[in-house]
Amino acid sequence: DIQMTQSPSSVSASVGDRVTITCRASQGISSWLAWYQQKPGKAPQVLIYATSKLQSGVPSRFSGSGSGTDFTLTISSLQPEDFATYYCQQAYSFPITFGQGTRLEIK
Amino acid sequence: QVQLVQSGAEVKKPGASVKVSCKTSGYSFTNYGISWVRQAPGQGLEWMGWIGASIGNTNYTQKFQGRVTMTTDTSTNTAFMELRSLRSDDTAIYYCARDHNGRLDPWGQGTLVTVSS
Known about the structure:
The structure holds 2 protein chains of 2 kinds. By secondary structure, chain A is an all-beta fold.
């Protein structure tokens, strides 16, 4: 199975800050990576797929990059509604696997 | 719009089985797969498996092999996930999600399954 490792596990930031979350795959996954946002009590929602493609309706302050084994999710200017938990997910091969999550908290 | 609506919360005793449904609408059901993902209280996301809605082919993660069965009913555009021999550590929210080449979107609202004696 492909292991996905996110860092940091949690981060505190302020509105307007730029935040970057990283995700490392245990083997190459080409560009088969997605990012999800989950708010308390809600189902996850996809933000980015295929490493850098922005899901329809997702604000442009979210962006993704990387390839192979190393990937990043960047939020260019944090808004109050962005405080949530973020997960990366590889779709290169079964079984699909997720990172352990990054909790983004208000400083 | 595309919607996935799951069945309601369940309380089961250890050793029992649970079957969660996921009724879809707003898209061509047989053109996509359905993935099932669970989330234990306060924990991360755990993928359980996938089913192709058109022919019912499945791929289960090894952890659940032999205990899980995923099916679809193309007459009602509904997917089902049955988990048997329930244990206390199966207590979790179970989600279905439309699967398009590994992109899971959208997700159902989730079904809380509680396993308790």
